[in-house]
Amino acid sequence: MSIVRYTLRRALTSVPVLIGATALTFGLVHLAPGDPIDVLVGFDHVDPATRASLRAEYNLDRPLWQQYLLWVRDVATLEFGESPITGRDVGPTVAGRLPHTIALGVSAWLLSLAIGIPAGIVAAVDDGGPADEVSRIGALVGIATPNFWLGLVLLFVFGVQLGWVRVTPPDAPLASLEMAWFMVLPTITLATALAAVVTRLMRSSMRRELEREYVRGARARGLRERTVLLKHALRNSLTAVVTVAGLQIALLLDGAVVVEQVFSWPGMGQLLVESISRRDFPVVQAVVLLIAVATIVANLLVDLAYAVIDPRIRHDR
Amino acid sequence: MTDREPTTRRGRIRIEGFDEHATATNTDHVQSNRSDLDAVSDRRDELDRRTTVDRLPTGGRSTRGGRNLDSGVGNKTGLEASWGRFRSNRTALFGLAIVAALSVLALFARPLEFSAMGYTLTVQPFSLAPYDPSELYVGPSNAGPSLAHPFGTDWAGRDLFSRVLVGGRYSLSIGALAVTLALCIGIPLGAIAGYFGGWIDETIMRLVDTLYAFPFLVLAIAIVAILGPGYWNLIVALVVTGWLTYARLLRGEVLSIVETDYVEASKALGTPHRTIIGRHVVPNAIGPVIVQATLNVGSVVLAAAALGFLGLGLEAGTAEWGTMLARGRSSLLQGHWHVTVFPGMAIFLFVLAINLVGDGVTDALDPRRETGRRDR
């Protein structure tokens, strides 16, 4: 199957998922107990006139499927309307938080790879030895540590006790030195669990590659062990890390929601939690939808990247 | 060259030196040995040779099955062998001991009583916890650890030691209940999807794919946002997000089992579909699902705690480990480290122990699956 055909076929499978995800997000307001208007205004008392205008604005007087289509049309043009709670436009509110979450997520992702890949290689080479055992225990501890608790402890030690970092984000632009310095702790917190997962994954795929014939062949040709490991085995085992990029993105987004809360980081996760406690459903909808679409697109890209790296996958499905 | 000997023999293959009897005994020997420690090392090797790739969740259809027909579940000797492997795994036993200890502590932390129609039935009269976990001002507020209050007290003067002990009840029961209920949904749906195929399969799997588009915790948060906080709402959120993995995994396994001769034979005999699924298909396909479920208990407990921390889990003030940390940030900034450290340690210890047990179960049931890797 050519890569183009594979791309088309794979993209087509995302369509029903995308429809389902938008329907579910749209349904949030309607699934909540109570009149959608009450849900929208956070169960505040509003006069009948506002009620009627809200009803018209959100098209609540039309049948459900029309409401859904109208909502999708608005959302497709990034028109999320106005939050009835804060009175601000939902789109810009969400967009303003986006760079913070992306910055945090990308730096945590890079850190987790920077820790996980070397640690996995060392563990695979040292199969069953002390380094392997240490990385195994490290990964177990990393996965079992609640990220919010790790964040709080780091904040206490380095922020309160040692005073090396501020406990709240500085009032500075995102791309500044102060902000970068503040981001160190959230990044470590977010990267820990992911690094543990990457380490285990890297170890197993490296171990598998090292038992392959071509590695024996390379060794038999007298290549240095370094070359065998880093040029031959590593390249092939890295594909395994690519395939779980989708899982990594989900882990990062889940983690970001919690970690942003711990460090008062003004990202999407914090906005989500704030909006839920304010019962600001249009914002909740926008954030959840954005996260879902990002996950769907990311998974699509991961599958395509994988099909490019490993052409066998194209014939598989 | 003109020797006719080879041509007359053409078509008849004789195998020299083949002792049928000896081979038969040998094979028997090998098979009975599978339950021994040799089998463990055999399977360890297999474990690393396995491709991890075909188990990974991708956007489209995933997990093809068919490798686990001999995973040792479903027949007695297989189960015994699995138990033998688990028993010889010291770290897994250590984890099990911690889980058991925490369960006992949680169970006997406060008396368990059921009151109905004026009668009170005391199921469990012991009380290891020195104070009522919700009683205010049993000590000074925010006091550090002391003899009277080993873990100190929180902002409202409640005894943290008692709260941590009782808090185990929530985490333990949420973990067990949420995973069990998710299995009760995921197993039937996965089996039906894989067995019948066609539009039934399409419908169920598209639903799974759709829910998979949302990261686990984000979806759980959205559900709790709709339903509001509370014990059962939390469980609903964790079940709705949890069953997907099991359905997907089981469907993959079922797809290959449906092809086997014994299912074909049962169909030919006119056995009802329900019986075939229940008796033949599910028992043979369930091994990897059980493994995944054990590994998931830890992440479910972590997610429940995270929701509690965000103030979305149980009602504020409940003695649940995550909820106890919800006010942890402000207490911590005032320097009261003990309010955060002890509940967090409890979560960590419990999740670590559960994961050790999970890895042990993985090695015991399905040794070819890589440990430490989980889907969600």
UniProtKB/TrEMBL annotation, chain A:
It comes from the Archaea. Keywords: Cell membrane, Membrane, Transmembrane, Transmembrane helix, Transport. Its main location: membrane. Gene3D superfamilies: MetI-like. GO terms for cellular component: plasma membrane. SUPFAM superfamilies: MetI-like (SSF161098). PROSITE patterns: ABC_TM1 (PS50928). The chain crosses the membrane at residues 12-32, 102-125, 137-160, 180-202, 238-263, 283-309. It holds the Pfam family BPD_transp_1. Residues 98-302 form the ABC transmembrane type-1 domain. It is found in: Cell membrane. It is a multi-pass membrane protein. One of its GO terms (biological process) is transmembrane transport. Belongs to the binding-protein-dependent transport system permease family. This is ABC transporter permease.
UniProtKB/TrEMBL annotation, chain B:
It is found in: Cell membrane. Residues 28-73 are annotated as: Disordered. Keywords: Cell membrane, Membrane, Transmembrane, Transmembrane helix, Transport. Residues 35-53 have a biased composition (Basic and acidic residues). It comes from Natrarchaeobius chitinivorans. It comes from the Archaea. The keyword Transport applies. The keyword Electron transport does not apply. Belongs to the binding-protein-dependent transport system permease family. Residues 168-358 form the ABC transmembrane type-1 domain. GO terms for biological process: transmembrane transport. This is ABC transporter permease. GO terms for cellular component: plasma membrane. The chain crosses the membrane at residues 91-109, 170-198, 210-232, 289-314, 335-357. It is a multi-pass membrane protein.
